[in-house]
Amino acid sequence: MVRFTKVLVASLAFGLIETTVAIQHVLKGGKVCRYMPGDPEWPSVETWNKLNETVGGRLIKTVALSDICYESASTYDAGKCEDIKNGWAFTEIHARDPGSFNSPILQNGTDPFQTERPSSLGNLPAYTIDVRTWKDAAAGIKFAKENKVRLTIKNTGHDLLGKSAGAGSLSLWTHKLKTLTAEDYESPRYTGKAIRMGAGIQGHEAYELAANLGLRVVGGSCPSVGLAGGYTQGGGHGVLNNIYGLAADQVLEWEVVTASGQLVVATPEQNKDLYWALSGGGPGTFGVVMSMTVRAHPDGPVSEVSFTFTDAGISKDIFWAALEKFHTHLSSLHNAGGQAIIAIIDNVFMLNGVTFPDKDIKHVKTAIKPWLEELTELGIQFQPQFTTYPTYFAFVEKRYGPLPNGPYPSSQLSVSRLIPREVIEKDNHQLTKAFRKASEAGPFFVALTSLHLPNPAVENSVNPLFRTAATLWVTTMMWDFSAPRSQNLAAWDTLVTEVLPMMKEVTGGDEGASYLNEGTTRQADWRGAFFGGNLERLEEIKGKWDGEGVFWAETGVGSAGWKVEGGRLCRVDKEGGRSWLKTEL
């Protein structure tokens, strides 16, 4: 069984955070903005202390995680600083900290690799509530509304778009909500095994509990991600999708604190509009999720084939022909019950597995044989590894370990695009050329996760184009903390302004779709790309449940009426539709 450690959080002394932001930034041009530390209207020490009493002493004044690395800081510790630096690019170190988050672009100089101690908290929250009950979240919502302070929600902080970041905000930290139980669930639409998990449960924790009970649950390949947060609320893809569907398709109910401070349960029968919106409509904008209950499936063996090869001894054309040949066999692999993940970095082609749940090695070899024979005919040298794991958790532990971080750094920036099946059928060669061009455009790697989704048992707000896609294509840059920030920003600019248009052109242009969990806030077409034809209904639901705009997340539903300017969240002129906003907070 999974064991959790109880953490006692000591009460801290609270005071105002120094800042150079002047009050005229709030009122310039008559704009309505959230207050920031240093503004005359910023809540007093006494007001913050009162909130601290309300939440049982679990209000935490932010100290940057990187502060320990600077001799001028009272927390300086050279040994611990090395540990922080070594873990900085991965999730877990940020997940354990109340305010820290992964997005390197929004860290904006608050990382531990600076030559001088950062002069401000940057995009870190001003204060954090260590949420242990729904009343803690309700108290934070009430405080933010009454004091016109920006509100953010964080679980692990593993969000490539930085939705859990927010300068001067009050953050609701749900990471300590670690309840995890199995139950026999019964409803008009589903009767069977289920797993109820608190918002703080990470993938590896859920997988282990389920395996101990002879079950499996749908989650991602990054084991440290919080399942009930942005992962499932944004859709949630992984290697079990082709059997069971996306993570959002598994949800039986949500337990959520709304903008009115009420705890409600959302199911396909009760508060069904909120259930629909939370299941794929994106995180941080409809409410504070306290827990979710998902379908649990019978566990069993998981078999896979994997290999790696380089361009040594072959031309670049042949190297990339391997991907083109793969796509010609993708439909048959899907029909055989397989799901593939491929990554190409420079001259390295990595099949990170074609995974076949509930199949044996003989089945895998038969299914993969036609593609492997074509690779051999091309003169490509590779050694396929065939493996069967007794459980899904055993597969995750080996393939995506070491736990809890997993093998891949999370300090990265990505753009994504769903590839429709007809693109592979009609334009496979052009698609391969686009992959190659994207890979060679900068210090990027391209990855694909194949998709062949079953229809969901219950309708939800996942972008409908997911249902007709054959592949999710992601192009990613790893943030290099040893390089100047300007160098990283230049690569990021290339990724957004040059590579993303390449990807769009070959996958449907403005009619195509991107995955909102692996997208960018700089994507001009994000409304349609992330939400497709669901956007109008999502905005109506946003208006019903949060007409005051308490919850805000960049590129989230209802975000068009607000904008971060100089770190401050302010109202802007109507753009792209803002009919959901009823009143000013």
TrEMBL record:
<dbReference type="InterPro" id="IPR006094">
    <property type="entry name" value="Oxid_FAD_bind_N"/>
</dbReference>
<keyword id="KW-0274">FAD</keyword>
<dbReference type="InterPro" id="IPR016166">
    <property type="entry name" value="FAD-bd_PCMH"/>
</dbReference>
<dbReference type="InterPro" id="IPR036318">
    <property type="entry name" value="FAD-bd_PCMH-like_sf"/>
</dbReference>
<keyword id="KW-0560">Oxidoreductase</keyword>
<keyword id="KW-0285">Flavoprotein</keyword>
<dbReference type="Pfam" id="PF08031">
    <property type="entry name" value="BBE"/>
</dbReference>
<dbReference type="InterPro" id="IPR050416">
    <property type="entry name" value="FAD-linked_Oxidoreductase"/>
</dbReference>
<comment type="similarity">
    <text>Belongs to the oxygen-dependent FAD-linked oxidoreductase family.</text>
</comment>
<keyword id="KW-0732">Signal</keyword>
<feature type="domain" description="FAD-binding PCMH-type">
    <location>
        <begin position="121"/>
        <end position="299"/>
    </location>
</feature>
<dbReference type="GO" id="GO:0071949">
    <property type="term" value="F:FAD binding"/>
</dbReference>
<feature type="signal peptide">
    <location>
        <begin position="1"/>
        <end position="22"/>
    </location>
</feature>
<dbReference type="Pfam" id="PF01565">
    <property type="entry name" value="FAD_binding_4"/>
</dbReference>
<dbReference type="GO" id="GO:0016491">
    <property type="term" value="F:oxidoreductase activity"/>
</dbReference>
<dbReference type="InterPro" id="IPR016169">
    <property type="entry name" value="FAD-bd_PCMH_sub2"/>
</dbReference>
<dbReference type="InterPro" id="IPR012951">
    <property type="entry name" value="BBE"/>
</dbReference>
<protein>
    <submittedName>
        <fullName>FAD binding domain protein</fullName>
    </submittedName>
</protein>
